[in-house]
Structure formats: C-alpha cells, structure tokens
Specification:
- By secondary structure, the protein is α/β, with parallel strands linked by helices.
- The chain has two domains: 195 residues, 2-enoyl-CoA Hydratase, Chain A, domain 1, CATH 3.90.226.10; 48 residues, no CATH class.
- The protein is built from eleven helices and ten strands.
- Strands 1-2-3-5-7-10 form a six-stranded mixed sheet.
- Helix 4 packs across helix 5, helix 5 crosses helix 6 and helix 9 packs antiparallel against helix 10.
- The N and C termini lie far apart (61 Å).
- The relative contact order is 0.11.
Length: 250
C-alpha cells in the first residue's frame, strides 16, 4: 500500500495513515486503499479488532485533501463523496471491533473517519473538530449524524456551526471520546484493550455491536445467536461449577 501501512500484533491489527507530510489528509488514493483493505484484506486476515491511527505524533488526520478537492468539479466531488461514504459506512459496519487511536488533530473528514469506529481513544494533546463551515461547507460523509448520536443535538450544532475545535478532555466530557491517555502510551493502551476484547467470543462481540447499532428489534435475535455458541456454554458451565464449589465450602 502506498498511503497506508499495516501490522499485526497477535490478533490485533493496526492500520496507519502514512501521509505525515500532508497531515495525513484523506485523498482519493487513501480512501481507495482504505476501502480495499476493509473489503478484501480484512476478510482474508479474519480480523477480530482493528486499530486505526495516523502516522506521527501530532495528527490523526487533518481531513480531506483540500488541494485535491479545490481542483475538482461538482461531478468529481460527488464521486469523492461516494467513495468516502462507502469507506466510512463499511468501516462502521465491519463484523469486528474498531478503535480510532486519535494521536493528535482529528478534523473534518478525519473526525468523520474516527466517528465511524466503535471507540475513540485519544492522546491528551488531541483536538477534534469540524472546521468545514470556515470554508463554506459542512461535513459530507455522515459526520453530522454520527456526531449527533455521540454528543447530542446542542453539542453537535455547536461543533458543526461554529467550527470550534475541542480538546480531548472536553471531547470525553461530551461523550465523543471514550478514553484519554498520554500520546506515547496511546497505541499500547489501544492494543491492550483490543487484546482483551479479542479474547472474548467473536459471536458475542459482533452480536452486541449489531444490537446496539440496529435497536431493540434485533437484540433478542442476537442474544439467541450468542446462546447457541460453545463459548457461551463453556463460560456458563465454568461459572456454575465454580459457584457449586463455593457453596460446598460454606
């Protein structure tokens, strides 16, 4: 890959945007590689957890490649948005867990990318925002709706309509970020979290993700799918036997 790099740490995959000289901006090339990785490579690798981050210590992604966008006509912009939406929608609906390791600025399309992940872990120096309004634009790849789900209508309006950037602490207080840690520990914290989750039943993880994402009407179906797995049977048997041993000791 030209714009992305990938490494495995056990069952955990780390995918890094490698455009540090361009603030990890999301060009057509980046999005095409990302979509191919999510649609093809991730399936071949049978991933359980994916960590997505940006190269360098200061930027997750500064957003869309503005120089590239500026040169586009309306038809080309529409094609770009279709590509970006396909990549982000696919990321959001992957059958495994995804963590955005926001190691610095996550702005515009960069923040939209992070919001499409299941969790956002941020460095204590991270800043997040939608500055599109300063260019006469708004988020165009699901950012308004994913932000609304994360922080509520008033905070979402403030971020989109003012272009205001917020620090990691404020982002966590609003429900946008799950966890904050020093930048030099960010990937290690994400990997440790990912390894713990990857040790759980994959069926249970995907079922929980589906139930949360699609609402009450699928929750029972997903519960029954979990109930019919050897992981559930083994875990419950171990707990029952442990409780029986404890009762016998009383």
């Amino acid at each position: 890959m030209k714009y992305l790099s990938h490494e495995m740490k056990g069952d955990v995959s780390i995918l890094t945007i490698e455009r540090q000289e361009h603030l990890n901006a999301l060009s057509r090339g980046v999005l095409e590689e990302l979509l191919y990785f999510l649609e093809v490579t991730a399936k071949e690798l049978k991933l359980k957890v994916l960590i997505l981050t940006g190269s360098g210590a200061k930027v997750f992604s500064a957003g869309a490649d503005i120089q590239e966008l500026y040169a586009m006509n309306n038809a080309q912009v529409n094609h770009f948005l279709n590509l970006a939406n396909r990549a982000l929608d696919h990321l959001e609906n992957l059958p495994f867990i995804t963590i955005a390791a926001v190691n610095g600025y996550a702005l515009g399309l960069g923040l939209e990318l992070a919001l499409a992940c299941d969790f956002i872990y941020a460095s204590d120096e991270a800043e997040l925002g939608f500055p599109e309004v300063e260019l006469g634009l708004i988020p165009g790849c699901g950012g308004t709706q994913r932000l609304l789900d994360a922080v509520g209508i008033r905070h979402a309006k403030e971020m989109v309509l003012s272009g205001k950037r917020i620090k990691a602490k404020a982002a966590m207080e609003r429900g946008l970020v799950n966890h904050i840690c020093p930048g030099d520990l960010l990937i290690d914290v994400c990997v440790n979290t990912a390894k713990k989750m990857s040790s759980y039943s994959h069926v249970a993880l995907t079922a929980g993700k589906t139930a949360i994402g699609k609402g009450f009407h699928v929750e029972r179906t997903e519960f029954l799918r979990c109930f019919d797995t050897p992981e559930r049977k083994g875990a419950m048997k171990a707990l029952v036997e442990k409780n029986q041993r404890c009762s016998a000791c009383d």
